[in-house]
Design a protein that fits this description.
By secondary structure, the chain is α/β, with parallel strands linked by helices. It is built from 10 helices and 10 strands. Strands 1-2-3 form a 3-stranded parallel sheet. Strands 4-5-8 form a 3-stranded antiparallel sheet. Helix 7 packs across helix 8. Bound molecules: glutamic acid and zinc ion. Zinc ion binds near residues 98 and 127. Zinc ion binds next to loops.
C-alpha cells in the first residue's frame, strides 16, 4: 500500500508552495488507494510555535485534505532519534565538531571553492574529523560539540552502489560527498532534520516520499542513513517548486503568499484552480478537491 506524507515545520504560516506540495502528496496517496499522513516537524523549540501547528491543521482542512490521527509530532519522539544517533556513535560513524559557524565560513573561504549546496554554502571542510581524543577533551572544555556524520567512513561501510528510485529524476546514484559531513545533532536540538526525517519515514511506513526538488540533495544523505540504520528504502518523487510572479520560489517570508491570506479572499475551488493555472502540468489535483 502506498503511504505518502506532508511534513511541514511549524515555523511560519504555510504558503502556496506548501499547499501545492501537500496536494501533491495527497493526490499520490488517494490515486493509489493509499494513505496520506501529516507529520509535524517541530524539533526546534525556538523556531516552532504551537499557533503555526494549529494554522497548518486549519489550512489543510480548508484545502480538503484528511489524514489519520494522531498526527506525529517529532518533539514527542526525541528518544527515537537518540537511539539512532547512539547506533551511529557506537559504530564511530559520527564525530564531534567544535567549529563555530564563523570558523567554518573562514575555512571554506580559504579553500577557494565555489559554493554548490542548495543553500548557497559549501560542505563542511572536515576540520574536526581527525582530532585526537586529547584534542577533543581540550576543546570540550570550552564548547559543546555538534555531531557530524562522517560521510567518507559511512560510505565505506555500506554496499558500494547505493541508489534510490525517483519518479521525477529516475534512478539516482547516491553521492553524499556532494553534501558533506552534515550535522546530525546539536546540544539545543539533539537531533536534526536529516536524522529525524529518516527515522520517522521508516517508523511510519512511508513508501513514497514526495517533496520539493530543493530537498533532492538531502536525499543523498537520507539514503545513506537508511543503509546505515538498516531501514527500508522508500520511493521518492521530488517535484518542481512553485515559482512566484517574480520568478523566485515562495518562502515563508512572502506574507502575501500565505494560504491563510488566500483563504480570506477566495473559495477553495478558486484557489485550487489558481494553483492549477499557475503551475506545471505535473499536477492533476485529486478528484475530491476539484
Ligand atoms: N520539514 C521539512 C520542511 O518543512 C520538509 C521535510 C521533508 O519533506 O522531507 O521543509
Ligand atoms: Zn568542526
Amino acid at each position: 500500500m502506498i503511504v505518502t506524507r506532508f511534513a511541514p515545520s511549524p515555523t511560519g504560516l504555510l504558503h502556496v508552495g506548501h499547499a501545492m506540495s501537500a496536494l501533491f502528496a495527497y493526490e499520490h496517496a488517494v490515486e493509489a488507494g493509499g494513505t496520506f499522513l501529516l507529520r509535524i516537524e517541530d524539533i526546534d523549540p525556538v523556531r516552532c510555535k504551537e499557533e503555526f501547528v494549529q494554522a497548518i491543521f486549519e489550512d489543510l482542512h480548508w484545502l480538503g485534505l484528511h489524514w489519520p490521527e494522531p498526527v506525529r509530532r517529532q518533539s514527542e519522539h526525541m528518544n527515537d532519534y537518540k537511539d539512532a544517533l547512539d547506533q551511529l556513535k557506537a559504530r564511530g560513524l559520527v564525530y564531534p565538531c567544535y567549529c563555530t559557524r564563523r570558523e567554518v565560513e573562514a575555512e571554506v573561504a580559504r579553500s577557494g571553492h565555489a559554493p554548490h549546496l542548495d543553500d548557497g554554502t559549501l560542505p563542511y571542510p572536515g576540520t574536526c574529523r581527525a582530532l585526537t581524543p586529547a584534542q577533543r577533551r581540550e576543546k570540550e572544555i570550552e564548547r559543546e560539540p555538534v555531531w557530524r556524520l562522517d560521510v567518507t567512513k559511512a560510505m565505506a561501510s555500506v554496499p558500494e552502489s547505493l541508489t534510490w528510485h525517483d519518479r521525477g529524476a529516475g534512478t539516482v546514484r547516491v553521492d553524499p560527498a556532494l553534501v558533506g559531513d552534515v550535522v546530525l545533532a546539536r546540544k539545543d536540538v539533539p537531533t536534526s532534520y536529516h536524522l529525524s526525517v529518516v527515522v520517522d519515514d521508516a517508523l511510519q511506513g512511508v513508501s513514497l516520499i514526495t517533496r520539493g526538488e530543493d530537498l533532492l540533495q538531502a536525499t543523498h544523505i537520507h539514503r545513506l542513513l537508511q543503509a546505515l540504520l538498516d531501514l527500508p528504502t522508500p520511493e521518492y518523487h521530488h517535484h518542481k517548486l512553485m515559482m512566484g510572479p517574480d520568478g523566485r520560489r515562495y518562502a515563508k517570508r512572502d506574507l502575501s503568499a500565505t494560504l491563510r491570506s488566500f483563504r480570506n479572499h477566495m473559495s477553495r475551488m478558486d484557489f485550487i484552480n489558481l494553483l492549477k493555472k499557475n503551475n506545471c502540468a505535473a499536477y492533476s489535483l485529486p478528484e475530491e478537491t476539484r
